[in-house]
């Protein structure tokens, strides 16, 4: 009789999107995972490697329409879908057995009313919120290990939260005037057709959006409040850059305690973190140095020794900002080395 495989069987709902196909790339290279099911409604029946030629020679899977019965045979199911989809399927799927890692915003906010306000539709599964763990390993590693349902943080929230974290944990800044000026590549908007993502709209152009209030704001504040142990105020302005991958967040905070060595504080806080690189004093993190890698590279500055801390935080939105962070969560949940399958180095130039 054939031996039952000890590999973790993984399924992906929404594997034709940018985060979905990035998950496929990462999971195919993961030594402890067998990719068992990939879904797409519009491309059901098509082979993955016909649609994504980078997968030729690595994968002979075929997209199927999402089916709880088939996905229920997996050990873990990733949702790489627009918000609302995991709400609709999660309860039935959890009852069938798999653990869930949701890349969408469905379970990120603890407050269902707040979610409904920002996402302009009722929360579809408030009864599951007590089970959901916000999957930022640098804060919630212990809870992730035993979680059934992970809400993978958004891309901007990952870059911004990791950047502010040491300052807030140590109570070093005025929490009423935090500023996050963040820039993202166009893949952040997903693969679906939209005018704003066309080359002629996004190329050779640079603009802010969501200034009146972006849906990542309540998510970021939820974690900043937790870190600070009090209510915080943040001005957050996202921008669209004419590049494909990457986020650079420039963060400003007014120091309330001027006596501390910020470089030493950042280095100590992240010394044991495999995916946060605190760069030497004076460094300028750049998106190309994290492209395709799961790293968040951070540099902390104090211009002219003044009373403002300026933190630069760079990630790849599709890796540490989504699919890589999802795999980091999987590793923690299944007791694997946290860096397994995630050690690729960005290519330069
Ligand atoms: N792009 C990024 O940088 C980041 C994205 N995210 C989040 O991750 C999620 C996926 O994003 P992204 O990959 O960019 O999205 P895309 O628009 O590129 O892909 C969405 C995928 O979901 C599938 N899908 C859409 N509607 C449904 C449905 N009702 N039921 C089942 N499957 C559906 C689509 O396939 P089909 O329609 O054929 O079924 C497609 O495979 C989103 O919630 C996004 O906000 C989070 C962090 C970063
Ligand atoms: C450039 C761009 O359009 N970025 C997207 C962020 C995508 C994302 O991460 O969405 P969720 O975290 O909510 O899932 C945006 O601003 O809406």
Automatic annotation (TrEMBL):
Question: Which biological process terms from the Gene Ontology are attached to this UniProt entry?
Answer: L-arginine biosynthetic process
Q: What class of enzyme is it?
A: oxidoreductase
Q: According to its UniProt record, where is this protein located? A: Cytoplasm
Q: Which InterPro entries does the record associate with it?
A: AGPR (IPR050085), AGPR_AS (IPR023013), AGPR_dimerisation_dom (IPR058924), AGPR_type-1 (IPR000706), NAD(P)-bd_dom_sf (IPR036291), Semialdehyde_DH_NAD-bd (IPR000534)
Gene3D superfamilies per UniProt: Dihydrodipicolinate Reductase, domain 2, NAD(P)-binding Rossmann-like Domain
* Molecular function GO labels: N-acetyl-gamma-glutamyl-phosphate reductase activity; NAD binding; NADP+ binding
Pfam families according to UniProt: Semialdhyde_dh, Semialdhyde_dhC_1
Where it mainly occurs, coarsely classed, is: cytoplasm
Which reaction does this chain catalyze?
A: N-acetyl-L-glutamate 5-semialdehyde + phosphate + NADP(+) = N-acetyl-L-glutamyl 5-phosphate + NADPH + H(+)
Name of the protein described by the UniProt record: N-acetyl-gamma-glutamyl-phosphate reductase
């Amino acid at each position: 009789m054939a031996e039952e495989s000890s590999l973790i069987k993984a399924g992906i709902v929404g594997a034709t999107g940018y985060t979905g196909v990035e998950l496929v790339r990462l999971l195919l290279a993961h030594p402890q995972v067998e990719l068992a099911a990939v879904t797409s409604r519009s491309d059901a029946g098509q082979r993955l490697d016909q649609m994504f030629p980078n997968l030729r020679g690595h994968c002979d899977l075929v997209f199927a329409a999402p089916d709880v019965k088939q996905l229920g045979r997996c050990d873990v199911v990733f949702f790489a879908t627009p918000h609302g989809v995991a709400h609709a399927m999660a309860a039935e799927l959890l009852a069938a057995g798999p653990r869930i890692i949701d890349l969408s915003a469905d379970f990120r906010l603890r407050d269902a009313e707040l979610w409904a306000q920002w996402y302009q539709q009722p929360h579809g599964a408030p009864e599951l919120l007590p089970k959901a763990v916000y999957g930022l390993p640098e804060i919630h590693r212990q809870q992730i290990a035993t979680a059934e349902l992970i809400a993978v943080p958004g891309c901007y929230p990952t870059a911004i939260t990791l950047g502010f974290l040491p300052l807030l944990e140590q109570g070093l800044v005025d929490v009423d005037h935090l500023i996050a000026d963040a820039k993202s590549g166009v893949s952040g908007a997903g693969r679906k057709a939209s005018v704003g993502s066309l080359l002629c709209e996004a190329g050779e152009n640079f603009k802010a959006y969501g200034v009146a209030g972006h849906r990542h704001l309540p998510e970021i504040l939820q974690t900043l409040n937790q870190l600070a142990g009090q209510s915080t105020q943040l001005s957050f302005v996202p921008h669209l850059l004419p590049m494909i991958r990457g986020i650079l967040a420039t963060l400003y905070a007014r120091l309330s305690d001027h006596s501390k060595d910020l470089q030493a504080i950042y280095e100590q806080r992240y010394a044991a973190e495999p995916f946060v690189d605190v760069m030497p004093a004076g460094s300028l993190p750049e998106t190309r140095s994290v492209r395709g890698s799961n790293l968040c590279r951070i540099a902390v500055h104090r211009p002219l020794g003044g009373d403002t801390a300026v933190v630069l935080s760079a990630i790849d939105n599709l890796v540490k900002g989504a699919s890589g962070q999802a795999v980091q969560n999987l590793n923690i949940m299944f007791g694997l080395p946290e860096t397994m399958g995630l050690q690729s180095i960005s290519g330069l130039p």
